[in-house]
Structure formats: structure tokens, C-alpha cells
Amino acid sequence: MTRPPQPEPSTVVAATAMFVEVLVVGIGFLTGLGILTAAIAGPDNTRKLAPVGGTPLAAGAALAFAYALGILIDRAADTALTPARRKLRAQSFPTSAAYAQARLKLAETPALTARADYARSRLRICRGWVLNSILLTLATDLALGRYPVEHRPLLLTTATVLGALAAVGFYLSWHTITATGYRKLAIQTAPAPTPTVPSQPPTPAPQSP
């Protein structure tokens, strides 16, 4: 009995990395939704629901839900950043066909493909956490407004400033990784220059005696 073909190690690593990336993004967004729900429900309702949220069944369901959310948030963040991404790509590739051709050429070199996958991994996390930072900031501000806490103005200001810095930081990181990735791809897949042969001076015709 023949065994089914096993996936290539690079394929397994890439699939695992993508699963982790999506889960990291989804957990962040789910955390923001949890804070937002607690803020809307208020202290009394939150205390009633707290025992249910601590069960293993709820934890497993939350993990699966976080993965599904991660996929949605990744797509939403990619769509929101598409105009900026196209502008950055146009700086290195004048047409979509040139970019597609470069991607095909890159796939022929496994070492370069692995580096590109690593860059895309960081890129997906950064763009997803741009949205996560916004949600977490809004949810935290709303919770601070609903729950009795000391030094509320200071906490609101701190949470807002830190959230804004996080969102801007993740966006700038995404911007830098994207621009660098396109620039490196253009350099790595550029055609090799044709060597020029120096022209030889004409050989003088032999003189007859």
C-alpha cells in the first residue's frame, strides 16, 4: 500500500505561520469585542456573565471564533490599505503584469521565497493590528466611561494616546515592510545586465612587399 504524498516542509511551515498570524489578529480583535461588550453591558451584567466565560467550552469556542475573526479582519485591513499598497507597488513595478512576472520569477528561488513569506507574515500582523488598536482604544475608553474608576480623565487620556500611537506604529511598520518588500522584489528579479564586449580596433591589412 502506497503512502499518500507528504506536503513539502516549506508548505507546512507557511501554513502554520499563516494560522498563527490569523489567530494573533483574531485574538486581538476578540479581546476588543470583549471589552466593548463589557462596557455596553455594564458592571452588573458583566459580573453575571463572568462565570460562563471562564468555562473550557467557552474558551474553545472563543479560540475558534478568534480564528474566524482573524480571517475577516485580515481581509478588511487589506481592503482598507489597498490604495496605499498600490501606490507603493507602482514605485517599483509600473504595471500589474510586471509585478506578476516578478512573483513568478521569485518562486523559482526557494531561499528568496522563504524570506518573502517571512516579510508577508509580519505584514499581515501589522495591518491587522492597525484595526485592532483602533477597536481596543475605543472599547477601553468606553469601558472607562461606564465603570467606576479613579482618575478617569488621566486614564482616558493615557488609553487614547497609547492606542493612537499603537495604531500609527503598526501602520508605519506595515508601510515600511510593504515598500521594502516591493523594492527588494524588483532588485532580486531584475534581468541580469548583458555584458558588453569592448570593440576591437580594426586590424590593418598586411602591406604587400
Question: What is the secondary structure topology, with strand pairs?
Answer:
Elements: H1 9-53, H2 56-80, H3 82-92, H4 96-106, H5 110-146, H6 152-188
Comma- or semicolon-separated keywords:
209 residues; mainly alpha; 6 helices; elongated
Task: Describe the fold and architecture.
The structure is a single chain. With 209 residues, the protein is mostly helical. It is 79% helix and 0% strand. The protein is built from six helices and no strands. α1 (9-53) packs across α2 and α3 packs parallel to α6. It is elongated and about 80 Å long.
Helix run count? 6
H-E order: HHHHHH
Outline the low-pLDDT stretches.
Answer: 5-9
Q: Report the sheet-strand fraction.
A: under 5%
How would you concisely characterize the structure shown here?
By secondary structure, the chain is an all-alpha fold.
